[in-house]
Amino acid sequence: SALLNVMVQAAMKAGRGLIRDFGEVENLQVSMKGPADFVSNADRRAEEVIFQELSRARPDWGFLMEERGTVEGRDPQHRWIVDPLDGTTNFLHGLPMFAISIALERDGQLVAGVILNPAMDELFTAEKGGGAFLNDRRLRVAARKSLPESLFATGIPFLGQGDHAAALYEMRQIMGETSGIRRMGAAALDLAYVAAGRFDGYWERALRPWDVAAGAVLIREAGGFLSGMDGEKFDHMQGDVACGNEFMHKSLVEQLQQATLRRKAASATLSALPRRN
Ligand code: IPD
Ligand code: CA
Ligand code: CA
Ligand code: CA
């Protein structure tokens, strides 16, 4: 569609810039937004390109972008949600698992998503009601219905931005029930890979709208299911996501609840111990 075309053009143009910067990461200026939370001029340059391209194509629409924040548009109905470089840590280490993520919100609902991994030439696109695609191939979530054969992905929050203890309990739980866990370092790609059937499921806490918005459209259009950690309705403005095919999503939510019970039981046992003074 014309809309997806606008999003794809913006992503591709920013992607070419990212590839140039990726070729000389040692020359980038890098600063920290918090412990273990890096940003570089590659992130900002890519965001500027996307902002310019989308503003030119749809002058009245607003933005929610990772680095620039909110830009109000004259049209109150439409808003772009943009992560110009998802996987900055990978990028800065020369790992080719990074992406540009662009979603469109109409009246608060996600209606289109584009995720581009420019280093691997993989373009994921989806529009509400129109299906999800990887380049020209139609996507479908994995059909697997056996937890012991499944492969899950997760993410670990940056230091101080989420609960590492909870993440450890969750990983231990899923490790014991599945054939493995991957921590790829780019939430947008984790979601795109679930839509593509590469991962059976994925969960992560403490994410931001630009990490999940485009990926959520892909998952839904590929026939997958998403929710918060306890199975509550998915909300891209909240930070938590659990997803997979219908079976894997349900199983994942059950396993995450088990993990929470175990964590609470452990901390209750600890606090019941007599204190040494
Ligand atoms: C990060 C990545 C990472 C996830 C973090 C995100 P950024 O995004 O998606 O996989 O674990 O929570 O913030 O900062 O590289 O755009
Ligand atoms: Ca970041
Ligand atoms: Ca991100
Ligand atoms: Ca980012």
TrEMBL record:
Record keywords: Hydrolase, Magnesium, Metal-binding
Reactions that this protein is recorded to catalyse: a myo-inositol phosphate + H2O = myo-inositol + phosphate
EC annotation from Swiss-Prot or TrEMBL: 3.1.3.25
Catalytic class of the enzyme: hydrolase
InterPro entries hit by this protein: IMPase, Inositol_monoP_metal-BS, Inositol_monophosphatase-like, Inositol_monophosphatase_CS, Inositol_monophosphatase_SuhB
Listed PANTHER family: INOSITOL MONOPHOSPHATASE, INOSITOL-1-MONOPHOSPHATASE-RELATED
Name of the featured protein: Inositol-1-monophosphatase
UniProt family annotation: Belongs to the inositol monophosphatase superfamily.
Binding locations of Mg(2+): 66, 83, 85-86, 211
Cofactor(s) needed by this chain: Mg(2+)
GO aspect biological process, one term: phosphatidylinositol phosphate biosynthetic process
Organism: Aurantimonas aggregata
Highest taxon, organism lineage: Bacteria
